[in-house]
Write a structure and sequence with these properties.
Layout lengths: L1 H18 L6 H7 L3 E4 L2 E5 L3 H11 L13 E5 L2 E4 L5 H11 L35 H10 L7 H9 L31 H11 L34 E7 L18 E4 L16 E3 L8 E2 L3 E2 L7
Parallel strand pairs: 5-8
Antiparallel strand pairs: 1-4, 2-3, 4-9, 5-6, 6-7
Amino acid sequence: MRLLVALAAVSLAIAAMLAVPQASSPAAKASSHPGMVLVGPGLFVMGSSESEIEAVRASYGGSADLYTPELPRRRLALPAFWIDRTEVTQRAYRTFVAATGHPVPDEPSVWAEPYRWSGGELPPSLLDHPVTLVSFDDARDFCRWRGMDLPSEAQWEKAARGSEGGTYPWGEGYDAWRVAGAQQRSDVTLDRIERWTDWWRSTYRGRMRGREVGTFPVGSFPGGASPYGALDMAGNVFEWVDATFDAYPGSGRTHPDYGHGYRVVRGGDWYLDRIYQRAASRLRAPRDHRVPTIGFRCACSHPQDTH
């Protein structure tokens, strides 16, 4: 009798579960935002502590101004959001240009020549590379056209390093094979800023083109994925975020470029090395800057929206 009662209770429980709508599967959620990853709500670590930047600077070198914009380390809470799995490609940007008549990526400098859209057409070999030669406003216009925004600085950093604050998207320890960066093209270990500087001068001599330079196709280094599955958040191109380059709240540190309206770029690029590819690293650029080393990705702050 007890066995029959127990079986009946189990049957009722199963029936109740089936009657309640279940949460959408990850695949179903992803289908509403193709090409994006979902970053769940909650706390995460943002920035660096004094001891962390002192240790990094002692190891790699460079001026204090490279590191102090990351101060202080703090825990912040964010609601859920979506962010592009990869940087926006030249191919995707071409669709935007065709639909809106937006000016094509361009910059009349010699070093920008390989990335310019000659006659309004992008270089065919770069279709699946990140779009570059785009200003902050170009990037923001593209995201708004998609019904999205540039990620906030906090959104970008959470998507890059996860909730526990890993140094790199994959965690701790620099692994060159995970990154579309300078170490891919150097036989010398670029573990000090002086070594990188010597290598750059001897290899590039100011050039931004050639076999050994330039962007990589997006997603070429899946081993560098962030905890949420976002790719190329270290290396390939810096990415515009919707932030002005100023001190974080509670920093107490000054910087010669604070207060001048510079915009923040994140993630490092193809010609720099590990120090700039840390998830907490912050650099700046004028909002009208168009260079072969800055691109972007979009974010959607309203997970219920479909795109």
